[in-house]
Description:
By secondary structure, the chain is mainly alpha-helical. It has 3 domains: 7-147, MgtE N-terminal fold; 161-281, CBS-domain (Roll), CATH 3.10.580.10; 296-466, SLC41 divalent cation transporters, integral membrane domain (Tetracycline Repressor, domain 2, Orthogonal Bundle), CATH 1.10.357.20. It is built from 21 helices and 6 strands. The chain has a 3-stranded mixed beta sheet. A 3-stranded mixed beta sheet has the order 4-5-6. Helix 3 packs antiparallel against helix 4 (65-71), helix 5 (75-82) packs across helix 7 (99-108) and helix 18 packs parallel to helix 20. The longest helix has 31 residues, at 370-400.
Amino acid sequence: MITQTSLSEMRFGADSDRSGFDAAFIAIEVARLLHEKQDAAIREFLESQELADIAALIDELEIGDDLAVLRLLPLHDQAELLGYLRPRAQTDLATRIPRRELVALMTAMSHDERADLFKQLDEEAQEAILPALSKAEREDLRRLAAYEEWTVGSVMTSDYATLKPEMTSTQAIEALRMQAIEAETIYSAYIIDEERKLIGVVSLRDLLTARPRQSVAEVMDTEPVWVRADDEQEEAARLVARYDLLALPVLDNNDRLVGIVTADDAMDVTEEEVTEDFHKGSIVQPLEMSVAEASIALLYRARIFWLVLLVFGNIFSGAGIAYFEETIAAHLSLLFFLPLLIASGGNAGTQSATLMVRALATGDVRPADFGRLLAREVLIALGLGLTMAFAVSVIGVWRGGPEIAAVVALAMITIVMVGALIGMCLPFIFARLDRDPAAASGPLVTSIADVLGVLIYFTIAARLLSL
């Protein structure tokens, strides 16, 4: 039996699941103390915890208790903590917070997280909040919320530090000190002209190591890496990873600086894209929320289309078997090797597809490399097929004699080669059609390889055994 311990002795263990048992167990004690009006004890505990862990705790609390715990934190910590909550949890809390309190909370949030929360609210709530914000905050919120979800603008923030080129390094450091409270990061500062066009970027390290009277114009990078606000957000994540940037400047179509994408936001984008690729690779429609939050109906709709489609696709496998009934009836030992051969083709195809999908996603290969990679894949697939054919031919001799062994060995070579080439080619075909190559993996490749494998196997068997 689990006994309750003092809250002050509880901690989120470094080796434990921070969103699992620890949070649920601590939530029981926190709820008890809330009902006993022991806010001071809870506040003392919260001060010793990381905000990400407190977010896991709030996620475990009952409605009402979660808001009570949130209110025990300073306003700035409340605003930062909201960013750690799942979107649905954010929206649920926001709808239960009084308007004046919510406005104060959103004002304290970073610009990008404030825009994300604003977009999750219904139209009535949005219209109630906007008039209570200052003009500058209102315009900034509308501008950030206007970007489409898939664009760089939807993940950028307008909390960035700017400098003038004529400033000395000493003046620049002092200016950054004044902007540090509001800026998302001051490790990279952006130099803009009177029209807000980006003319350079300088790191805090360069300013600290520069001579006191050396100007910003002398130490800044005049050719910074940048991205357009209406580009796809994956492009921002790719550039941040490629150039090891802490922040990436975002320009509009008139080359004006409108925001930055920080490294942590780029990591979030990468995580979303990897999750989406996993879903597509398993022929699951991308989900707009986490699996834990998704309803049964939503998960059903996300999976049923491709499953039904592949059912009809696999009918061709059955038709192929039916077509070769006479051959199968005369040599029943052929059926023993059917699952083995079909699985081998699907496995080889899935391997090739996985390698190509990931290589295309990371930029390791490009569609223009198709010819070179195809020739290499033929040689690799031939080697794999020969090795697997040698292994299975021994079983073929034991199970059905030399003739069956020859059929199985030749079929294994052909099926593995065909499966591997299908897996390698499909991602390139999808990329050429401006489709996500991730959709050309897993069950789709396996289903195609299964149908062709059945036809190849029994065609070879019918020809060789008839001789």
